[in-house]
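Hi Prof. W.,

I finally got the Tafazzin family protein prediction working! I wasn't sure whether to trim anything, so I left the full sequence exactly as given:
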Amino acid sequence: MPLEPWQFVIPEKPGTFWRIGSRFMIIGTGIISRIYLNWANHFQGHNLDILYNAVEKRPPERPLITVGNHISCFDPMLWGTLKMKGLGHPHKTRWCPIASDITCTKKWHVYFFSLGQGIPVVRGDGVYQHPMDVCIDKLHKGHWVHFFPEGKVNMNKEFMRLKWGVGRAIAESRVLPLVIPFWHLGMDEVLANHQPYIPKFGKKITMLIGKPLDFREALQHLREEGKSPLEIRKKLTDIIQEEFVVLKAKAEALHKARFTSST
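And this is what came out:
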């Protein structure tokens, strides 16, 4: 079911007040996330330079896609690991599809998340809904879009087929995006997925950034073979899924080692 008009307020051409409000929102939440991630808890990142270089040094026309697992509603706080100097910069701040049934139930929720560069999507409405078009338009402009391709908080941490929207975004971007996967653990300890929803302190959080994925050859072969758009987006998403399996095992070993060394 499409979004109601009041649920999608992101302007096509943002004015001065929207830009100021958005920057204020992003900087404020970025500072809070950084404090909570690094001071209130024990964050350990691996290969963070890969992410920093992609955010800060990629060419202006090169879009960036990041993909990661989703285990807690606090997962967006992971961006507190980014450097302060990039906070609020349009080219260095991620856009992200967000579930409308959670983030768009009240009007002030809509503005809060939209000013923070969240793009409301309707789960179940498919890869061709308008918000996905907006995500791809951001890529056309060289922006950064983050996807949680599991499509929801994975409370049981079970194997889930990734949603194909990210595959469509990669395939249809005018400039091939730089795609960086990551896997993280510990955020569900910071904010559990059950009541009472009270944030905790002193928890260990581990984040492993993977190597950038190059889809150039895969896309070329798929197009030369005359594959349909559905087949293409499925194959590209499958490549990400395979990388997730590898990253998951490595991240779990790194996270486990932190507990072993402290005993």
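The chain has a mean pLDDT of 95. Does that look reasonable to you?

Thanks,
D.
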